[in-house]
């Protein structure tokens, strides 16, 4: 049973109604904007004890989803997270306040990590390889990604026993990441509404082609081209061409393949966008602090920075190290959890640059350690990034430009030295550079002087 309350603008609840199980589908079919309105007006806090099924992403996508999941649990919802047996991210042995529902996939953890490593590698090629290498890598990767989607979808929605098990649990809504296949098909199979949470897809393919988001090529830059909303004629032409290419690639490749998988599972012709487009809400991990002004459909809700929280105290040894930096303060440096393979040459470049600055450096890095390390640098396998960024001694953040870290830096007012590696990272840093919060360096071509100069500017230049 669900409880829906209306609240006035000050947030005081003055009217509540009860509704039976059919609440969600009814609302959704009657008018999605009504559902949105209800959520906006009353906030999640007055809808009690829903049953939520979560189809999580991997790596940082799961960390993002987790923030929402924990908040739902906090508000007394009962949450179940679907995990496949090959997931490289979700730690099943950890004690959690939500349930896991494990399902079998005919894959090993190694297959999955290899796929994601390839994804990272592709971007290295894109920065550094020849056109032909990039093309052949891209098509390899798309093929393995497609087969991954097909395998997971069949193991998930193609397994009638599993679907029946889930149906019996009477979920009321599904929360899904579009990078994890088939949350939409599962919602369809269980006949419940679903919410997509995501940051962005390239060329806004999903948002545009499935979610009806308007993207006017005259002033909405097509990620990933580095452009602002102020484009000249040539840039607009390139922008238009870029949208065109993304659409063509999607229609000729991804959508064609996925639609065949979807059709096979549903047993009738079904396109991907037909299913994805049924999403009732899209939680977009973005924010106007970051975006250029542009139109969005009303069921797109901005949750960028949803994971930002005031800093907690650091572990004692780290706090001691941070305090030892005196007035110079510290620099926080990490390329995130996915990137572990720095070549020796690049490692030495970072070490020699960071050894020259007066600040202490807290470096989160899980890969092979440099042979010698200047006294002002400490390397940790894992660092409490949020808490470090919120520390009053933190002067700068060297980041690969993953959106989570950037939002934390914005939240705590820490300027950035961005060294983008792959995916949306170049765009992220580009935008922040344009807005005066960051300096961007090129990972493959920078040298230690560039890094030192960049850091000095970020730390000392009051602009
Ligand atoms: C999973 O969680 C358990 C319990 O918190 C912990 O001991 C273990 O190291 C974690 N495993 C990984 C791979 O993070
Ligand atoms: C990038 O290209 C240069 C020159 O072609 C090469 O020496 C270097 O190893 C490449 N780096 C990576 C990471 O592929
Ligand atoms: C289908 O799901 C059930 C219940 O989760 C599981 O026991 C069974 O092994 C699955 N079948 C296949 C082929 O994976
Ligand atoms: C790490 O980099 C080295 C040298 O570039 C390469 O030989 C090795 O295969 C890489 N390892 C992984 C796991 O990517």
TrEMBL record:
One of its GO terms (cellular component) is membrane. It is a single-pass membrane protein. One of its GO terms (molecular function) is glucuronosyltransferase activity. Its EC number is 2.4.1.17. It catalyses: glucuronate acceptor + UDP-alpha-D-glucuronate = acceptor beta-D-glucuronoside + UDP + H(+). InterPro entries: UDP-glycosyltransferase, UDP_glucos_trans, UDP_glycos_trans_CS. It is an enzyme of class 2 (transferase). Its main location: membrane. Keywords: Glycosyltransferase, Transferase. SUPFAM superfamilies: UDP-Glycosyltransferase/glycogen phosphorylase. It is found in: Membrane. Signal peptide: none annotated. It holds the Pfam family UDPGT. Belongs to the UDP-glycosyltransferase family. PANTHER family: EG:EG0003.4 PROTEIN-RELATED, UDP GLUCURONOSYLTRANSFERASE 2 FAMILY, POLYPEPTIDE A1 PRECURSOR-RELATED. This is UDP-glucuronosyltransferase. It comes from Alosa alosa (allis shad).
């Amino acid at each position: 049973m669900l409880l829906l309350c209306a609240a006035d603008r000050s947030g005081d609840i003055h009217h509540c109604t009860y509704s039976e199980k059919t609440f969600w589908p009814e609302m959704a079919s009657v008018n999605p904007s009504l559902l949105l309105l209800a959520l906006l007006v009353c906030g999640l806090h007055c809808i009690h004890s829903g049953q939520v099924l979560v189809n999580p992403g991997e790596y940082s996508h799961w960390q993002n989803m987790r923030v929402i999941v924990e908040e739902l649990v906090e508000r007394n919802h009962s949450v179940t997270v679907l995990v496949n047996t090959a997931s490289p991210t979700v730690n099943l042995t950890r004690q959690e306040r939500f349930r896991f529902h494990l399902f079998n996939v005919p894959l090993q953890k190694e297959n999955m990590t290899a796929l994601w490593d390839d994804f990272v590698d592709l971007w290295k090629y894109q920065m550094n390889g020849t056109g032909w290498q990039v093309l052949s890598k891209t098509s390899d990767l798309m093929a393995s990604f497609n087969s991954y989607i097909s395998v997971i979808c069949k193991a998930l929605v193609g397994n009638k026993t599993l679907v029946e098990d889930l149906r019996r649990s009477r979920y009321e809504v599904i929360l899904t990441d579009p990078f994890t296949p088939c949350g939409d098909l599962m919602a369809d199979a269980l006949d419940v509404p679903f919410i997509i949470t995501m940051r962005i897809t390239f060329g806004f393919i999903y948002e545009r082609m499935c979610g009806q988001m308007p993207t006017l090529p005259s002033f909405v830059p097509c990620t990933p081209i580095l452009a602002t909303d102020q484009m000249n004629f040539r840039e607009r032409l390139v922008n238009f061409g870029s949208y065109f290419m993304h659409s063509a690639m999607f229609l000729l490749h991804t959508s064609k393949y996925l639609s065949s998988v979807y059709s096979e599972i549903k047993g009738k012709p079904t396109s991907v966008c037909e299913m994805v487009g049924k999403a009732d809400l899209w939680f977009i991990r973005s924010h106007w602090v970051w975006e250029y002004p542009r139109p969005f459909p009303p069921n797109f809700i901005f949750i960028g920075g949803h994971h930002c929280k005031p800093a907690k105290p650091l572990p004692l040894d780290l706090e001691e190290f941070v305090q030892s930096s005196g007035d110079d303060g510290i620099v926080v440096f990490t390329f995130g959890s996915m990137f572990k393979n720095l070549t020796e040459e690049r490692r030495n470049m970072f070490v020699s640059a960071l050894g020259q600055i007066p600040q202490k450096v807290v470096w989160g890095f899980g890969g092979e350690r440099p042979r010698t390390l200047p006294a002002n640098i400490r390397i940790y396998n894992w660092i409490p990034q949020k808490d470090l960024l919120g520390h009053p001694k933190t002067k700068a953040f060297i980041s690969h430009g993953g959106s989570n870290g950037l939002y934390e830096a914005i939240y705590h007012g820490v300027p950035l030295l961005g060294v983008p590696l792959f995916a949306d990272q170049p765009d992220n840093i580009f935008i922040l550079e344009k807005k005066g919060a960051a300096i961007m360096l090129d990972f493959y071509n920078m040298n230690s002087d560039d890094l030192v100069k960049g850091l000095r500017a970020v730390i000392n230049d009051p602009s």
